[in-house]
Amino acid sequence: MAIPAAFLIAALAGCASKPVMQDGIRVNDPYEAQNRQIHDFNKAVDARLIGPVSRLASTGGDDAASDTGQPGALDLVINMGSNLSLPGKVVNSLLQGRPGPATRNFFRFAVNSTLGIGGMFDPAGSDFGLPEEDTDFGETLAVWGVPEGAYVELPVLGPSTQRDAVGKVVDLAIDPMWSILQTDRQRALAFGLRAGAKAGDRARFGDTVDSVLRDSADSYAQTRLIYLMHRRHDLGEESSDIDPYADPYADAAAIDPYEQ
């Protein structure tokens, strides 16, 4: 591995600062000033580009498709983009020492890429009982003992932590799809489908995302809180300093505005 876990542990630990509490959640945000500037940029991009494009995609015939019970164009794009992400998830599950999820995602990819016509349809889930098992290199680092590090907001990609930001970069490097796809055109198409799947999820949860970004008294703090709570829950890193009676979702449903 090009980035040893020991180096990452030392680097992220060195960036630690005294955390504060927000609604019962421990928050380590030493770069808040810069993060807020990036958050404002992300809100502007969402308002002017991502939001309108996703809303346009969601109305591109999907209502008619839903009347017939068939997946619409947006669903097909999301399915294909999600299918292309599976080889990378297989690799991460293996790196985490979890052969079960790796095997299930492998067979899901094989079934949907063939019977599902390149991933447009999901017979693996509907007929074979093989739902997608999500993971990424950020989770792999967590399994290896790399600390979360400081909260950061990334341009366009949205909320993250130092550990997860490193994970996003490594995910690109280790994704087997870049080796499977032989031409630049194929890689560009795959990248477009992956991006389209993200835009599709933005369309699916448009009302909730708009509530977080437009209606919250402090959309930055709300986004940060939702991301950290859900990420720690997904990784099993919930701390005893979390108030189990706190309700961070009083004003918005629990969804990461920028991630799938």
Task: Give an overview in words.
It is built from 13 helices and four strands. Mean pLDDT is 83; it is low at 240-260. The chain is mostly helical and 260 residues long. The chain has one domain (22-235). The chain is 61% helix and 5% strand.
What would the keywords be for this entry?
260 residues; signal; MlaA; disordered C terminus; two-stranded antiparallel ribbon; lipoprotein; VacJ family lipoprotein; mainly alpha
Short summary of the structure?
This protein is mainly alpha-helical. 61% of the residues lie in helices and 5% in strands. The chain has one domain.
How would you summarize the topology of this molecule?
Blueprint: H1 5-14, E1 20-22, E2 25-27, H2 32-58, H3 62-68, H4 73-84, H5 86-95, H6 99-114, H7 123-126, H8 137-143, E3 151-154, E4 158-161, H9 162-174, H10 177-180, H11 184-204, H12 206-215, H13 219-235
Helix pairs in contact: 2-11, 4-11, 5-6, 8-9, 12-13
Please state the oligomeric state of the protein chains shown.
single chain
Report the order of strands and helices: HEEHHHHHHHEEHHHHH
What general form does the structure show? globular
Report the span from N to C terminus: 26 Å
Average pLDDT taken over every residue: 83
How much of the sequence is in beta strands?
5-15%
Specify Rg, calculated over alpha carbons: 19 Å
How many strands?
Answer: 4
| SS summary, helix count | 13
Give the strand order of the largest sheet, numbering strands 1, 2, ... along the chain: 1-2
Helix content: 55-70%
Task: State the low-pLDDT regions, or none.
Answer: 240-260
Structural class call reads mainly alpha
Q: Characterize the biggest β-sheet.
A: 2 strands, antiparallel
Domain count = 1
